[in-house]
Amino acid sequence: MAESVVLNTGASIPSIGLGTWQLEPDVVGNAIYAAVKVGLALKRLFDEGVVKREDLFITSKLWSDNHAPEDVPEAIGTTLKDLQLDFLDLFLVHWPIRLKKGSRFGPENVIPSDIPATWAAMESLYDSGKARAIGVSNFSTKKLEELLAVARVPPAANQVECHPVWQQAKLRDLCSSKGIHLSAYSPLGSPAMFKAGNVLQHPVVVSTAEKLGKTPGQVALRWGIQTGYSVLPKSTNDERIRANLDVYDWSIPSDLLAGFSEIEQVKLVRGAFWTHPEGLLKSVEEVWDGEIV
């Protein structure tokens, strides 16, 4: 199994990355401090020759209150300054949902999106080289098809929730047919957040792990990359990070892999935080265009 996947830009993205969403404040500090700290750490690694910039694949996202075309270059500029980088390998539109500029995260601040205008600004970043690849996150098949209908530069990736309990078969087929890489966040199901539909306790995952002499986490990650995704497990534990990388020299045999197709599907990241009965988005069905079952 290859340790990287080639995007439609020709760039290679690692099959396994490191997710950083919702890391505890006492581990990484607040968002600004963390970004600057990472930037300083990267600069030191480059300066000391520990790693070359071209050996790292760094992704960041455009937050929802920066969807206005004039705000997009400012947003990536801030990110590049914080990280002390000249370019990002991949820059994603975080959600197909727009917030009022400078507003707090909440359904009362959701306003109508203009994804074609936002995407045109993203394409300009790609043209400039500040983003070597551009993509989206949390886009349903419907929203992805709408974007493809107007895009000059097609998205290189769609980063979405994906794991054995939410396999995204319909979205996977669309992405595959259009040359768009599907990248999986919460590939272990975010067990600290979601008790229902716990991926690491699912009988199929546990049974497969026992038969192969692996951990449930390794099986969940191996299922992802064996299916063709890149996966973004989140951890601050050195031993667990090493274990997460130990998924390349073995595979899930076809007879055990078949059992994964029988798993009842449950979407865990439902996006209810965007909705309100009197808001622009009134239900999670609207958030995902009905693609939640």
Describe the structure.
This protein is an alpha/beta fold and 293 residues long. Helix content is 36%, strand content 12%. It is built from 11 helices and 10 strands. The strands form 3 sheets. It has a 6-stranded parallel β-sheet. It has a two-stranded antiparallel sheet with strand order 1-2. A two-stranded antiparallel ribbon has the order 5-6. The longest helix is centred in the first third of the chain and has 17 residues, at 31-47. It starts with a strand and ends in a 6-residue tail after the last helix. Mean pLDDT is 89; it is low at 22-32.
Short description:
The chain has 293 residues and is an alpha/beta fold. It has helices at residues 25-28, 31-47, 72-83, 115-128, 141-150, 169-178, 203-212, 216-227, 238-245, 254-257, 284-287; strands spanning 4-6, 12-14, 59-62, 90-93, 98-99, 110-111, 134-137, 157-161, 181-185, 230-232.
